[in-house]
């Protein structure tokens, strides 16, 4: 004899399963992806003038402690945006900078510091930058106002410290934000934690996922011949949809020497590293000469319509913790050919972000 109660339970169970199955098939083609509703506006356009191809670019400063605007009645911090045009003419590249720079401001600060902007990116039709002092991701409007969008904290997301954000990249309609990509240490190189080796995945709605990239960053530096206690510091990372690879242009590379503040300023890099999405295939190439090691990559972008082969990059130089200057260069990462030798930007500033916009 069948238990009527159990029979009733089974019938309800199969009914629920059936309803779920019907619901799945009805909504199968309506699954939400990260690209649903994404705004693909690049905020820029290409101009053709004779045999010239002209791209609008903007760069942004990290003024460190000099970002405080001392003439303001209310505590206010600032950064400078410089606009210009990247001109391609055959194998020749030049840059034409606008005469005036734009000052952008914010009153959001942490520990009396703010607006130390470290990168620029166009994401979901908006121009964004990240403050490496507060962890705030800002939208920069076309009239050069700053609007706080997302706050990012350090490590796995359960810390009270801000993310020292150094780079921004877009992959699969998701914004990636990352820091130095090396272990956090004391000024003498003593290990503290792995927090700077986490990256943040941010949806177009501002939802944040904290992703551990310790193994990925270690794989990248090992491929470049870095062995303990050597290190690698990242300030410029991009994803190429065309090549389906991550690109790393490190700021500093020390093959085997421990990190110290005293020696770090001489470890500038001229290295381009590519990694497959699973980080199992990694290539390393040097572009030009690194000279005395004072200059290292602080930002880069792929030049539009070049099959992600031409790169425009910024390098920064510091001495005793003070900025000496920044330099712009253009090269073909595949062939190693340099189309624009390092050319200094105006002022003794650290320019740490570049993007094609406005």
Automatic annotation (TrEMBL):
Cofactor(s) demanded: Ca(2+)
One MF annotation (Gene Ontology) recorded for this entry: UDP phosphatase activity
Keywords from the UniProt entry: Calcium, Hydrolase, Metal-binding
GO biological process, alphabetically ordered: proteoglycan biosynthetic process
Coiled-coil spans in chain: none
Keyword Nuclease found: no
Annotated positions binding Ca(2+): 118-119, 166, 235, 298, 352
Transmembrane segments: none
The organism's place on the tree of life at top rank: Eukaryota
Protein family membership: Belongs to the apyrase family.
Protein name stated in the entry: Apyrase
Species of the source: Bursaphelenchus okinawaensis
């Amino acid at each position: 004899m069948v238990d009527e109660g159990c029979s009733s339970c089974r019938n309800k169970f199969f009914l629920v399963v059936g309803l779920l199955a019907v619901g799945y098939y009805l909504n199968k083609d309506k699954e939400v992806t990260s690209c649903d509703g994404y705004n693909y506006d690049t905020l820029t356009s290409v101009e053709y003038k004779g045999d010239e191809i002209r791209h609008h670019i903007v760069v942004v400063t990290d003024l460190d402690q000099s970002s405080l605007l001392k003439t303001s009645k209310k505590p206010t911090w600032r950064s400078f945006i410089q606009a210009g045009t990247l001109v391609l003419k055959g194998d020749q590249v030049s840059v034409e900078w606008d005469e005036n720079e734009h000052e952008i401001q914010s009153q959001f600060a942490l520990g009396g510091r703010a607006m130390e902007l470290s990168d620029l990116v166009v994401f979901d039709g908006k121009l964004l930058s990240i403050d490496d002092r507060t962890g705030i991701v800002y939208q920069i409007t076309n009239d050069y106002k700053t609007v706080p969008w997302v706050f990012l904290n350090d490590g796995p997301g359960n810390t009270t410290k801000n993310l020292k954000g150094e780079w921004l990249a877009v992959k699969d309609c998701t914004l990636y934000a990352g820091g130095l990509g090396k272990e956090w240490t004391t000024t003498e190189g003593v290990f503290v934690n792995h927090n700077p080796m986490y990256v943040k995945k941010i949806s177009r709605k501002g939802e944040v996922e904290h992703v551990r990239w310790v193994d990925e960053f270690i794989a990248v530096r090992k491929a470049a011949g870095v062995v303990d206690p050597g290190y690698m510091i990242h300030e410029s990372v991009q994803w190429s949809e065309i090549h389906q690879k991550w690109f790393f242009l490190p700021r500093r590379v020390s093959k085997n020497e421990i990190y110290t503040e005293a020696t770090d300023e001489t470890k500038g890099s001229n290295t381009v590293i590519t990694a497959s999405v699973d980080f199992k295939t990694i290539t390393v190439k040097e572009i030009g000469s690194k000279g005395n090691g004072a200059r290292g990559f602080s930002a880069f972008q792929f030049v539009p319509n070049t099959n992600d082969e031409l790169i425009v990059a910024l390098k920064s130089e510091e001495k005793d913790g003070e900025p000496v200057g920044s330099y712009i260069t253009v090269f073909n990462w595949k062939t190693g050919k340099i189309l624009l030798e390092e050319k200094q930007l105006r002022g003794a500033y650290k320019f740490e972000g570049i993007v094609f916009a406005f």
